[in-house]
Amino acid sequence: xxxTTPGPVxxxxxxxxxxxxxxxxxxxxxxxxxxMILRVQVGSGMHGTSITGQDDRDEMGLCLEPPQFVTGLARxxxxxxxxxxxxxxxxxxxxxxxxxxxxxxxxxxxxDLDVIIYSARKWARLALAGNPTVLLVLFVPDREVVFRDEAxxxxxxxxxxxxxxLAAGRYLGYLKAQKAAxxxxxxxxxxxxxxxxxxxxxxxxxxxxLRLGLQGIELLTTGRITLPVPEPHRAYxxxxxxxxxxxxxxxxxxxxxxxxxxxxxxxxxIEDQPDRRWVDDWLHRSYLNFWARDH
Length: 295
Known about the structure:
2 domains, five-stranded mixed beta sheet, single chain, 43% helix
């Protein structure tokens, strides 16, 4: 194995205790912990765009669930209270901000942990469709990896198999959504009026819009995403978030990235589809190996 090839990382698989949320039962937590194959930091802390003291910690991972949840019809309770109908196991999701008065309505802030551990099958469906959020786990440097076993290492080593024009289209869609929120477009969602009041526009949406454009372009042209965001782009993104760049300048930068992504989405030089055959084979082998070890 070369020094650049991802390998196992021994770390914590322990997750925050369950909660009264559909995907936060203690049974779901146990499945995620026992079957975990990958857990990494994502979000601004990993991108290098965080502002000291302002950010929560975001983590994402994958796990392999027991056979009865794949080949059978087993379900997990609806949160720790289990009052609602049971649910299929697709993820364990927990936000420590929920522990404060107000519960799930709370916005995460400095010092909070937001963690989601997907079923490997659900993650693969999202990744094959080019979802920018889930694809990031494949490129996180070792220092930001909380846990990674052999199956997770093999997946990260084959990140290039997920690159396709589908990803270009999805990055473009995410960028446009952030741009709409940044510009206050009718119907767009924004929940940071305090930033608009101070800077005249939502600087966090603006920063994410350009980041998505830069990372999407890198992925489609090199097959990789460099994390954290390399300089000078990182410093520029941080200056946007701090409100140090005029709106018109930022809008031009976002629009330029949008145009480049549109070109890549339509480029015949990029594969039309990801390597679904390899992903299917990896899922099949990983689940069978896990079940053989567990039973």
